Amino acid sequence: MSEHPLDLSARLIDTGVVDTPPNRITQELSELADGVAMIESFSHVVVLDTEEGLVTFDSSGPASGPAVVESLRNWSDAPVHTIVYTHGHIDHVGGSRAFAAEAQQAGRPVPRVLSHENVHARFERYESTNGYNQVINMRQFGGAAKKAGQASERPFLPKGTLRPDTTYAETLTEEIGGVSLEFNYCKGETDDHTWTWLPAQKMISAGDQFIWNFPNCGNPQKVQRFPIEWAESLRAMAGKGAELFVPAHGLPIAGEERIRTCLETVAGALEVLVAQVLEGMNAGATLDEIVHSVSVPAETLELPYLRPLYDEPEFVIRNVWRLYGGWYDGNPARLKPPADSVIGAEIVALAGGVQSVIDRAVGCSTEGDHRSACQLIEFAVAAEPEAHAVHEARVQIYTARRAAETSLLAKGIFKSAVADSEEALTGEVPDVTMVLNIGE
Hints:
13 strands, seven-stranded mixed β-sheet, six-stranded mixed β-sheet, alpha/beta, Metallo-beta-lactamase, Chain A
């Protein structure tokens, strides 16, 4: 048995020393309080024991759902009364089919599913953008160079995923098996999020509003995030006086003061970032000027629960601009730009040939100027997309760029560039396995 999650979280937070990853996928169940347990998976499943049966917060993903059910049954054989979707991402809802199958095999009713009403719209969007979601998730999590038309025919929303049958709009209070639950709607990573307050247990189920990483509030390939509403939800949670706080990724946290400090620190980081971006926008700055002038203090990003290992502040800055200012970045040349192939050919001609551009791109990469290296090699690719010398340099450049990055989102996209050029060089699609398959 690994270190108990509450002991580990207290040690990481109190010392600031991260000597082991806080996001664990062990499929192990740990009791957190009387009648409360958590299964560490992707995502976690939080379990509440009531007189009417079990209430679970999320169901994990389609691949991990069966292991979660097995772990749960080693703890309790009570029927699952209700599954609460904290939001509609695949790693939170895809495991529901395993719960349904287990109930049917035991001759029990399929669990009721409760969520915010916007989960229905999310599922509809997944169905209408099935191919797109396959492409971007292969790129984001596997680094595969998937292109339009290459996506799998399988549905992004797994067949058999349970649909919500009980929904609410703003708040909902229910009593299940003698336990009072207060469901609260908020925006943040998604527009369909639920966090739950259990007053008798002084416990909060937070979903993805806290993930032991810098908030996933800027994901470059996904839909709009909501940083101010995210911060507001964290402050609302902090005001509850919770003594047990359980997110869907990362470790649970015990202790009112420790919980409040963590939540207020994350909220403050988002609020300051938004304030800086808006200050620049109101002063007439371009997106480029804001991206290269706004930052989060290094000491903030060193906190065990705010490290930029999934998303990162630069992406959040761009998302804040999109939220308040649209897609025009302030550079008039990019309002209606030429095709990449046209501008690439112009740059190559000015440089005196594609080899000059390749040489300078490699030189920039060697000097550690990865931003310039990538831009230059993309001009070369756009101008001569079949040239082996271009793709050989591109593999080298993006391999170095990926190694210098911290966030999974950046690493995945840069790895996909490597895979794309490797395919161009060999004619074979690289064998890249997607590590994770989540909604957003």
